[in-house]
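Intended use. Records like the one below are meant for learning the mapping from a protein sequence to its folded structure. Do not use them to infer anything beyond what is encoded.
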Amino acid sequence: MDWAQAENAPGTNLPAGYKQLVEAYGDGIFDETIRLLVPDSAYDDCDLHAQTTERDEILTDLWEFEDKPAGLREAGTRVLPWAFEEGTGAFLYWLARPGQSPGDWTVL
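Structure written out for the chain above:
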C-alpha cells in the first residue's frame, strides 16, 4: 500500500495500528460483523476515500437540522470513518482533533 498517496485524500496521516491492520487483512470482515474500510478498495462500500466523502456529506446534511455535538464544534475537528457494522449501517469513526496525533484519536 502506498500510504503517502492513501493519506493524501483524507488530508491527514492515519493511525499506525490501522495501517498494520490493513496491511495484514485488507478490506476484510471481522467476526462476520465489522468491515474494515481500506483506501482504494475494489468495493465502494469498503473504500475509505469514498466512504469518507459520503459520510462527510451525510453528517453535514444532518447538522443542518440537528445540533452538532459539542465535541465536534472545535475548529478543525473531524470525524473520519474507518469501519462499519455489517447489516446495521452503523459506522466506526475516529475523532480527529487539531494538533492530536492519529495514534491518540478517539474511536466513536
